[in-house]
Amino acid sequence: MDIKTYVLKRKQYLKDKITRDGGTPSLAIIQVNDDFASNKYIAGKINDAKEVGINATLIKLPETTAMEVVLRKIKKLNKDPHINGIIVQLPLPKHIDENIIKEAISPAKDVDGFHPLSRFKACTPLGIVNYLKDEGIKISGKNVVIIGRSNIVGKPAALLFLAEDGNVTVLHSRTKAEDLKRYVANADIIVVAVGRKHFINDEHTLKKSAVLVDVGINRNDDGSLTGDIKPGRGVFLQTPVPGGVGLLTRLTLLENVMEAYLHGI
Ligand code: NAD
């Protein structure tokens, strides 16, 4: 099933579940800027939430807000029994320590899965693994190559694929180009999260049976988006950009909020 149809189906399922339950799961979004991209992402998240019956509240603070003020807001939301999930939109202004903020969010409400003790998995890798499993793609015993080692994608993806018994290899900025070619040629599943247009291209030999997951979002001069993998590689499955992993990430945030609502403390 293509990702758009899959996401629509899962959102409908979520909406029905919320309607049957009769309550309203709620998400608080903290934004500390008035950045164009952040505004756009947040509008998307609020819209997604509304579609399924989740109440999303935006707490928008000016870029000059002191870190203590942001921490106080988070503490208040941590204690608020009407709030199930809390996310802080990144990037944060330079004077605010991202790690301190991430760790201030209660692990029971950290629906982005950024807190080290969060009860939630990071949305992008979880969305990918759920989709592949639902598509009947076998992970156990398969050679899974993850390119990129960020805390929000590469590293948590490695742990999730390992939990599914994949043979996981993580490649990164210090991996030699010739080694990368060797690893991808032997891979059954490749997740690319580098942030470079067509990082995987015709120079790379791939298995015909390979599954390619393109996490990259690269903005072109005309505003259009391009992934990290050159399209049309003729493999078993290749996720598109746009309309691919981004949709899975957005879906998973909603599913994490629902989980927090049902099982949070
Ligand atoms: P990042 O930008 O923090 O880091 C990039 C990673 O690429 C690093 O871990 C680095 O080691 C690796 N890298 C750089 N050069 C390399 C090379 N030559 N060979 C191998 N690895 C190399 O990573 P991020 O935050 O995970 O973002 C990666 C991309 O994914 C960006 O385009 C971002 O916009 C996108 N992204 C998309 C979603 C989504 O929902 N679709 C979510 C998160 C990030």
Question: What does this 3D model show about the protein?
Answer:
The longest helix has 19 residues, at 3-21. The chain is globular. The protein has 265 residues and is of the alpha/beta class. The protein has helices at 3-21, 36-52, 67-79, 98-104, 123-134, 154-163, 177-185, 245-263; strands spanning 26-31, 55-60, 85-88, 143-147, 167-171, 189-192, 211-214, 218-219, 225-226, 237-238. The protein has two domains: 22-114, Leucine Dehydrogenase, chain A, domain 1 (Rossmann fold), CATH 3.40.50.10860; 123-246, Rossmann fold (3-Layer(aba) Sandwich). The strands form three sheets. The protein has a five-stranded parallel β-sheet, with helices on both faces. It has a three-stranded parallel β-sheet with strand order 2-1-3, sandwiched between helices. It contains eight helices and ten strands. The mean pLDDT is 97. Nicotinamide-adenine-dinucleotide is lined by residues 124, 147-150, 152-154, 171-173, 175, 193-195, 215-218, 245-246, 249.
Relevant terms:
Rossmann fold, 2 domains, 8 helices, binds nicotinamide-adenine-dinucleotide, globular, 15% strand, 10 strands, five-stranded parallel sheet, alpha/beta, three-stranded parallel sheet, 265 residues
